[in-house]
Amino acid sequence: MTFPRYMPTPFLLETPWGLTMKRSYLLPNTLLAFVLLAAASLQAHAQTPDWTPAGGFTNTMAVLATVSFDGQPPDSGDLLAAFVGNESRGVVSATNPGGGAYVFILSVGSNTNGETLTFKAYDASANAEHTLCESLVFRKDAFRGAPPGSPIAFMAATPAMPCALNWQAPTGFPESMIVNAKLLFAGATSTDAQDRVAAFVGGELRGVGARSGSVPEVFVMEVWGLAAGEVVTFRTYDQSSGQTYAPSRTESFSPGAVRGTAGAPVELSAANPIPVELIAFKAVRDGEAVLLRWQTASETNNAGFFVEREAGSGARAWEQVAFVEGWGTTTVPQAYQHRIEALAPGRHAFRLKQIDFDGAFEYSPVVEIEIEAPRTLALLPNYPNPFNPRTTLAFTLPNEGRAVLTVSDVLGRQVAVLFDGVAEAGRQHTVAFEAGSLATGLYVYTLAHGGRRVSRTLLLTK
Length: 462
Known about the structure:
It is elongated, with a radius of gyration of 25 Å. The chain contains 1 helix and 36 strands. 33% of the residues are buried. The chain is mainly β. Helix content is 3%, strand content 53%.
């Protein structure tokens, strides 16, 4: 394949996962090649986390980024994904254009300017997912981290390396203003050389403070913006306690303005650390499963949430069924969800155990839901799909009796019998399908029961 020196403006690029990238400027052929290499690499790793992006978006922006996994750079097979709440808006595999260092070239979809994008990464070598510290604000046709700048350096927070220690001055903004600030922790002026302060707009980092050479207790911060009137918030980090704070003080962005002086700086007072504030938690039916959804207003040092299910009746006993990674420290509302499959009919109770990086924890209120016995002939979508080499299928029956679940290729040739026996009514039956010996392609799985047949398709990608 050959590429023209430049693509005319604008142009559309349809990616393999169904997201159209749109640009309104000239794109060098080398960068276009990098995007296509990243897309091809993503197809080759279909067994990785299911971060399939939502579709139907009319606008896109691009992000050039790198990720630090415990101090190590990305490698082949690693993934980067962007989210709004819990909805994926773009995912891409790491690529090494020209044989250099691995980077991510990510296209993000949206219909609305100003949405806050958060990010997750997958470390293939450790088979581990990470929630990243940084967030960005969606802007149509923007290219963040693009030359002549440098890739945005995302980082996965750890107890030893909180997000605040990775605050880095942003690039690519047209205007800036200066803020001279003094930090106050519990009423005392900050003097520790390791204390930090940063400015944000909608969760996106817009400036990092540095100690003034002439007045050491004052931080000088260049705050970058896109338009006058943007609301600038601040976060401060106290090295002695390891806590990140969100002062109540805000400023309105004004290009060229100077807020505060060395003699009379803006005071950023932090009396209490940002709490993990749970503002919603509910359980809803999702087909034959239960979907737990919860939302936080803000978080501090949040390692994540253990999802617990009541294990017995009478005196309540609880079992942990999953762990959902938290966002560390953030003042941006975050949405979470976890799907629980194959629950027996009856009442089910759930709670969350929120745990900090230091081991401190707190329980959520308990939510309950009633699962009714299914009385229909249903063949459910397999998960994951596409898959390689293993996926899970599920079905329900209206009456007890013989059921046969088979898999065939598109020519109708049977390649597997997954179930052939008597199955109960009133419960969901799950079957694993191992397809390691089969070729890449589309297959049909069919459930036969009581003279009726229902079919669905699945896609094996190697």
